[in-house]
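Moderator note: this is an archived Q&A kept for reference. The question asked for a predicted structure of one protein chain; the sequence and the answer are reproduced below.
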Amino acid sequence: MRYKNLIVGIVIIASLLGFTTKVMSDPLDIVKVTDLSPKKQVEYFADLYVVDSNLISLIIDHESQWNNSAVGDGGRSRGIAQFQKSSFERMAKAMGEELDYTSEFDQIKLLVWGVANGYGREWTAYRCIKNGGKYNFYSRQLGKHFHITCKIA
């Protein structure tokens, strides 16, 4: 206990004399996740939610080619993760956060969270990847059959 008090005293005196101490990290050294590139955001959230970042990257490659302006499914899906607005809002509510449908950052965050929490099958690319690179399905929304192939390596 004596040593702890001595260390605290030294830190206080050093700070009063203008010496810098490394007791706490400098806030300027902290990089905001929003400032990271989309690929680094995928890595960050994949680590946070314990998901394979390569799987998430493959999903984004297939869904939008990392283009946040991408539009698919006859205009119903948008963004880097190709969310339909209703799906995005439903998943964000399940996640417990208010997220912005148009935000690349929020789409990446919600995609990774969604895959980690059992929503992966909502992305055609996820099903295709998990099925070895090929996936066939019928879309009731679009009223037709689709045969999807995707790179898995």
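Archived answer notes: The first strand starts at residue 71 and ends at 72.
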